[in-house]
Amino acid sequence: MTHRPFHRQSHPVERTQEGVMTLRRKGALTALLAAVAAFAVVAAGSASAAGKPIVIGWAFDSKGAMAPFDGPALAAAQIRVKQVNARGGVKGRPLSIVTCDTQGNKPAIAKACAVKLLGQKADIIFTTCDVDFAAPVVQEAISAGVLAVAPCIGTDQMGPKRFGAKGKLAFSFGNVAQDEGSAMAQYARARGWKTAALATDTVIVYFKDVVKAFKARFTQLGGKIVAEESYQSLGGSNAQNVVTRLNAKKADVIVTSTAGAFGALPQIIAGLRSLGNETPVLNSWAGDGTYWVTKDPKVTNYYFVTYASIFGDDPNKAVSALAKKVKAGTGGFVTGSAAVDGVVAAINRAGGSTNGAALAAQLEKFNKVPTLSGLVSFSPTLHSVFGRQYRVIKIQDNNAKVVGTVVAKVVPKI
Fold it and tell me: Where does the Leucine-binding protein domain start and stop, copy by copy (predicted)?
């Protein structure tokens, strides 16, 4: 009985066509449902991928000589990450920072930190602010095909020059030493200083390269070098001998590149001033801050170039506000924020990819990319920043203030 309707004799052809159309409609509906289901699976997968955090693994020094630089940069980066995430992240993915303390950048501990962070699925590795100390971390990262970024390494060695072909994955948002020394030379000549005595701290490459670049650009601009001395901080014992020799030379300015945290800077400044020598001293960003100044004698006639002022008078009010939040000890703090800005820009330009080679290709194309620290440029040969504006700060009677700005017009070869 249930099949009887299909055997009616009226309009047999019409009924057959109607059945065929019904079957076709059922087939189309089935196909449509299958397509919708497949799309739902793909969409769910995309949503899952879109929500997956982009992990920045950060190997930083909390206790050693680089702590005054690493700590503020990390703090600024953490604030910047919160701001990025509040705006929806990067291509819908939040940023996340996981850290590992290198405890003074001991090579074995630094390497272990890199291995640990990579094991935690870090998409990008951030490292300390000196290329020698950073090398164990950088090598682990680039060997794994992961982009390695330093907030403030200042040499051209953060790239292929130091790490070979794999070094294409290594970048720094610090100013390259050649640019920094050049800016110092321009400022010196603009002040009318015609002669300079050089004091080179030989402990790390960055210190040496800044002074070399100053010499190259200063002489190019018509200045004259009247003395060249060298010393070694971090346990070196010849700083006082250098003071004696510098005091015997007449120069418009004494130029060095060294950090207060490395020990020799307060010895040199206090030594000169104790001898009654008030010759201006011009230092690089390494000599930023007042955490190292001596009370007797007070630091006077001392200048340095830096990324930002931590003294509440930076030309950019947003920079001053951030400095206050992170309780920055040096202007390098802003490079932590800049590194996040740069990585975000690279990921966006790479279509959301965090692949090391894809990000490196985008970073090499950076030409005056805006960051909180100023305009950032890289090139295939220079993986550290050039062409960014420096603040010039003077310390007089232990009080610091911005006295000018300068942008290097030439990156000299050294």
Answer: 53-397
CA angle 10, 16, 18 (to 5 degrees): 100
Residue 13 domain-assigned (yes or no): no
Exposed e or buried b per residue across 1-11, where buried means at least 16 C-beta atoms within 10 angstroms of its C-beta: eeeeeeeeeee
β-pair type (253-257, 281-283): parallel
* 124-126 vs 54-60, strand pairing mode: parallel
Total tally of structural domains belonging to the chain: 2
Contacts of 288 (CB under 8 A, 6+ apart): 304, 306, 310, 330, 331, 332, 393
CA end-to-end span of the chain:
100
Cβ of 414: how many Cβ atoms within 10 Å? 18
Number of Cβ within a 10 Å radius of residue 120: 12
Prediction pTM value: 0.82
Instruction: Name the helix (H) or strand (E) containing 24.
Output: helix 12-50
pLDDT in tens, 161-172: 999 999 999 999
Give exposure, 123-158, as e/b (b: 16+ Cβ within 10 Å).
bbbbbbbbbbbbbbbbbbbbebebbbbbbbbbbbbb
Cα separation, 414 vs 407, in Å, equals 19
**What would the pLDDT profile of 256-275 be if each residue is shown by its tens digit?**
999 998 899 999 999 999 99
Q: Which domain holds residue 348?
A: 54-175+315-383
Spell out, as residue ranges, where the chain has pLDDT lower than 70: 1-50, 236-237
Q: Which two tokens stand for residue 77?
A: 């980066």
Domain assignment present for 33: no
Tokens 């990324």: give the residue.
307
Q: Are residues 263 and 247 in the same domain?
A: yes
Same domain as 112, residue 85: yes
Contact 237, 178 (CB under 8 A): no
For residue 110, the model assigns a pLDDT of: 96
Same domain, 279 and 376: no
Tell me how far apart the alpha carbons of residues 266 and 261 are, in angstroms, rounded to a whole number.
Answer: 9
What is the Cα–Cα distance from 374 to 386, expressed in whole angstroms? 11
The span from the CA of 98 to the CA of 196, in Å, is 45
Distance CA 311, CA 160 (A): 36
Length in residues, the chain: 414
Q: Report CA 25 to chain centroid distance, whole Å.
A: 61
CA torsion 68-70-76-79 (nearest 10°) is -130
